[in-house]
């Protein structure tokens, strides 16, 4: 029996897909070139014309270039996000993301956590989505490259976990509104030496921890939504695997025989502008 995620009958399933998939556009700042940095920390409000911090710009540019140079990678992320219920009351939701990417046309992502489990497989022809707990699956015909697929799937109401990380890795360009930035200094994340950077936008604040040394990978991020009185946060700690070969079998998908099919309807494409202020966190 064919089912559609855009039907009233399956509205809750559609919402579950979106809530489980939509990340904050945190990695967008890696592609921005218009940064303003203070002399120490973030610029004070009275600083009308803060100068760009060359150290922060260099760290960001180097991390972006390195990410785009990788032919393949695997990454695991432990993600937490605050869900504002009412009157500023917050619940913390957590999830684990496991993702493998191979340039230019392969991706596998698994999400498990407080709000269920999801599987996404892109094989260069189709993007497959499997809602494990509900035992529903759906497939859409996709463009021939991962970059083109990421640019097209939003019209189907689907957004992948860690979406912008993959988008930047594949060469996509995002330009958020960065008001201020600071080079905080060195620290460690899970025993790895990192450089901490801080950024401020119109409605969100970011902190990034980028690995020092020959592999400038993003190791941690924290995002605070500042236009919400509850100031909810999104955080992720990332662990990278660049040594283990990504197997072809990682990008194959076969739905369980007893699974029900979802037909992802078409919707009007949304604005191409991406902003951490409007995207929601992957659970």
Any key phrases for this structure?
13-stranded mixed β-sheet, globular, 283 residues, disordered N terminus, outer membrane lipoprotein receptor (LolB), chain A, 4 helices, 14% helix, mainly beta, 39% strand, disordered C terminus
What is this structure's SSE topology?
Layout: E1 2-4, H1 11-21, H2 54-69, E2 72-86, E3 89-102, E4 106-113, E5 116-122, E6 126-131, E7 136-141, H3 146-152, H4 163-169, E8 178-189, E9 192-201, E10 204-211, E11 218-225, E12 233-241, E13 260-263
Parallel strand pairs: 1-13, 7-13
Antiparallel strand pairs: 2-3, 2-12, 3-4, 4-5, 5-6, 6-7, 8-9, 9-10, 10-11, 11-12
Describe what this molecule looks like in 3D.
The structure is a single chain. The chain has 283 residues and is mostly beta strands. It has one domain: outer membrane lipoprotein receptor (LolB), chain A (Clam). The chain has 4 helices and 13 strands. The chain has a 13-stranded mixed sheet, covered by helices on one side. The protein starts with a strand and ends in a 20-residue tail after the last strand.
């Amino acid at each position: 029996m064919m089912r559609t995620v855009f039907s009233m009958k399956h509205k809750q399933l559609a919402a579950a897909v979106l809530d489980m998939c939509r990340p904050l556009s945190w990695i967008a700042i890696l592609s921005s070139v218009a940064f303003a940095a203070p002399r120490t920390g973030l610029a004070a409000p009275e600083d009308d014309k803060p100068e760009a911090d060359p150290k922060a710009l260099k760290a960001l540019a180097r991390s972006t270039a390195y990410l785009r140079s990788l032919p393949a990678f695997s990454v695991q992320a432990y993600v937490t996000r605050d869900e504002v219920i009412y009157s500023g009351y917050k619940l913390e939701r957590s999830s684990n993301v496991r993702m493998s990417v191979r340039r230019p046309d392969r991706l596998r992502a698994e999400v498990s956590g407080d709000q269920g489990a999801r599987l996404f497989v892109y094989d260069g022809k189709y993007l497959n989505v499997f809602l494990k707990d509900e035992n529903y699956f759906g497939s859409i015909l996709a463009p021939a490259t991962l970059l083109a697929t990421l640019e097209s799937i939003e019209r189907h109401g689907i957004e992948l976990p860690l979406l912008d990380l993959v988008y930047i890795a594949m060469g996509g360009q995002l330009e958020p509104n960065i008001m201020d930035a600071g080079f905080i200094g060195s620290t460690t994340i899970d025993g790895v030496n990192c450089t901490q950077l801080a950024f401020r936008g119109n409605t969100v604040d970011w902190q990034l921890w980028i690995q020092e040394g020959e592999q400038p990978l993003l190791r941690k991020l924290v995002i605070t939504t500042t236009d919400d009185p509850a100031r909810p946060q999104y955080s992720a700690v990332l662990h990278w695997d660049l040594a283990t070969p990504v197997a072809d079998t990682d990008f194959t998908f076969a739905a369980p025989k007893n699974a029900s099919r979802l037909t992802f309807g078409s919707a009007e494409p949304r604005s191409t502008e991406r902003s951490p202020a409007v995207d929601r966190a992957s659970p």
